[in-house]
From TrEMBL:
Signal peptide: none annotated. Keywords: Methyltransferase, Transferase, Ubiquinone. It comes from the Bacteria. This is Ubiquinone/menaquinone biosynthesis C-methylase UbiE. The keyword Membrane does not apply. One of its GO terms (molecular function) is methyltransferase activity. It comes from Streptomyces melanosporofaciens.
């Protein structure tokens, strides 16, 4: 199958937004894993005085994880899907959370400006057409030394990991999604993971984009070998060190 991209993918997420949280709730550990990935950023205190960007916030699960771990931070949450964003913005939030309708490639057009102390992106990079360009944009939004956290399905590379992922998608996720009328999006989910970077390759991609102190950390449970947290720092260049 051809993967969904750009406007077609945003439209598929718009359609799925009404039932997205129901499917998420059926994934054991989904919210706990997001909070774990936020903690792995190692940001100080409760986030007091920090500006965070939640890139690809969806219906707000990643935003909630950021708010839970770093309740004093100022959070800008952006997504390309208007439907998903409406669901996110309709939830109760404390002050300091702002939602912006914008794809990751066109944040500046929507008024999103750095510098941010950290950028968090959950389940985003395998869905963008040009992940290297998005990483370059993210680097430009971070302050020197700012941190990037990526929470993503990136297979470890073993045949068994591909088999488990396919079993879960075909045996559980896709049948439920078909009943809900969202089969194309979840066929895309299955295929996008198989075709995206392995964990090692994505770590190398981060280095090539100007990040250092890169760590690829597995997530627990059935997702071991399937999902990882990547933590990296915007590397200083010579002009910044001068």
């Amino acid at each position: 199958m051809t993967l969904l991209r750009d406007e077609r993918l945003a439209a598929a997420f718009d359609h799925a937004s009404r039932s997205y949280d129901t499917l998420v709730a059926a994934n054991p550990g989904y919210h706990a894993h997001l909070r774990r990935s936020v903690r792995r950023l190692g940001l100080p205190g409760h986030g007091q005085g920090l500006r965070l960007l939640d890139l690809g916030c969806g219906t707000g699960a990643s935003t909630a994880a950021l708010r839970y771990v770093l309740p004093a931070a100022d959070i800008t949450a952006a997504d390309a899907s208007a439907g998903m964003l409406r669901r996110a913005a309709a939830k109760p939030w404390a002050d300091g959370v702002t939602f912006v309708h914008a794809p990751a490639e066109r944040l500046a057009e929507a008024g999103v400006r750095g510098p941010f102390d950290a950028v968090f992106a959950a389940y985003l990079f395998r869905n963008v057409t040009d992940p290297d360009a998005v990483l370059t944009g993210v680097r430009g939004l971070l302050r020197p030394g700012g941190r990037l956290g990526v929470h993503e399905y990136t297979l470890r590379g073993r045949r068994a990991d591909r088999a488990v992922w396919t079993l879960v998608c075909r045996g559980v996720v896709q049948p439920v999604a078909t009943l809900l009328g969202d089969a194309p999006l979840y066929r895309h989910l299955w295929r996008s993971v198989l075709e995206f970077d392995t964990a090692g390759r994505f770590a190398r991609r981060l280095g090539a984009a100007g990040f250092d102190r890169i760590r690829a950390l597995p997530l627990p449970g059935w997702q071991t070998g399937i999902a990882h947290t990547f933590v990296a720092r915007r590397a200083h260049d010579r002009r910044e060190d001068a």
